[in-house]
Specification:
The structure is a homotrimer of 162-residue chains. Chain A has three helices and seven strands. The first copy, chain A, is of the alpha+beta class. Chain A has a single domain, classed as RutC-like (60s Ribosomal Protein L30, Chain: A, 2-Layer Sandwich). Chain A is globular, with a radius of gyration of 15 Å. The A-B interface holds A 26-33, 35-36, 38, 40-43, 99, 101, 103, 139-145, 149, 151, 160 and B 94, 96-99, 104-113, 115-116, 119-120, 123, 131-140, 153, 155, 160-161.
């Protein structure tokens, strides 16, 4: 097991969740898709097995800390999907973009702080390769009343762009 | 006419709308743009000619079924734009990403089910090439009070990546 | 100084803001990132130095004209980041996508008109190269109560795709 995959397991352990089971999605689409050397990962909500473990509006029903935890679970799901597609997180060469949607109360303006939950995980597991651009916004609702949804674009080395 | 273009016409007929006229947009931008072998399609709302045919908040003024129909119209507009740029939908090789924004009431959490309206159309018309990643979120408002807005990234074969 | 960089300075002057200082961001991520010949720019809010200069909901606390100004500042920040990375805006070859998030009141439906503020700047500074696809949506909140957030994908010439 490589350093990155070990770091992934350590973050999962610290979170108190396992990402070994099926990464369930809720509709007629695919969880991730490779196009050339780019991987697109579908929007992830903080679902563990069948349960969405963080629901409701940040700033009202959900604290900043709980919302950050939701963001961590979302990004761990995205990484778990990439790990399964690639065999190991070692194949990743960059994470050009994440978008973080935070279900927010009317006056909750800490979407960036919520998204830092995910960003910190990327740096912790991938180091410099985890450098990413980010957009975080406050939305009105999310599927299954999730507090956070996160999607990702990641890249792997290719023969054309090694 | 190819199988995909025939399937497009059949879906249009079933929806009861024609996509033969101008695909109007509402601002100073372009409806789609090719960069290398990637096509970016601007956010589409369910507009037929000059009229946005599904407006208002899903879960309040708009039923799930009507919102799904809005998503279908959005994705048909995106495909119509690609068809015109390429001559035929046969040139498409992948649809790596769609993002589906659903104007939602405070407690409407079926954004995924709404987005399935669009996803099903992609599979029906493009078959395996219609496989896509997806992000669906619940927003507070959309241009012209549209119920759904959808954007897309699609790819075509290129000399470098045939 | 090239024509594009001169046009950038002229737009900045007309806006009444300088983009010479640090382009501050609010979290653990990078403001822009190059992957191959594609640049991803993180979500930009209308911040000048330490101050977010346009805050609140469009249609309620913020007029259409002020929201358009916010969109202009966002896109100028994005261009300033690219200018610094590339030495000059002359290196840009395309702007395939911008996404414009507008903090909106319940019945504000002019997100497209707000986004035109940014789109017009792209055409003014980059000419034909400023042609772009666009998605504009109305969100419930944004980081630091910003009225607008905007992200961008831009491209430069590469050896493989000159």
């Amino acid at each position: 097991m490589t350093m990155r995959d070990q770091a992934f397991d350590q973050v999962a352990k610290n979170l108190g969740y396992s990402f070994d089971g099926e990464i369930k999605i809720g509709g007629n689409y695919v969880p991730c898709l490779r196009e050339g050397n780019t991987f697109y990962v579908s929007g992830q909500i903080p679902r563990i097995g069948n349960e969405v473990v963080v629901t409701g509006k940040a700033g009202l029903e959900v604290s900043l800390q709980e919302a950050q935890k939701a963001a961590q679970i979302c990004v761990m799901r995205a990484l778990a999907l990439l790990q399964r597609s690639l065999g190991s997180l070692d194949a990743l060469t960059a994470v050009p973009r994440i978008t973080v949607y935070v279900q927010s109360s009317a006056d909750f303006t800490q979407q960036s702080e919520v998204a830092d939950g995910a960003s910190n995980v990327l740096f912790e597991i991938l180091g410099e390769v985890g450098r990413h651009t980010r957009t975080s916004v406050g939305v009105y609702q999310l599927p299954k009343n999730a507090t956070v949804e996160l999607d990702m674009i990641a890249t792997v080395a290719s023969p054309l762009n090694p």
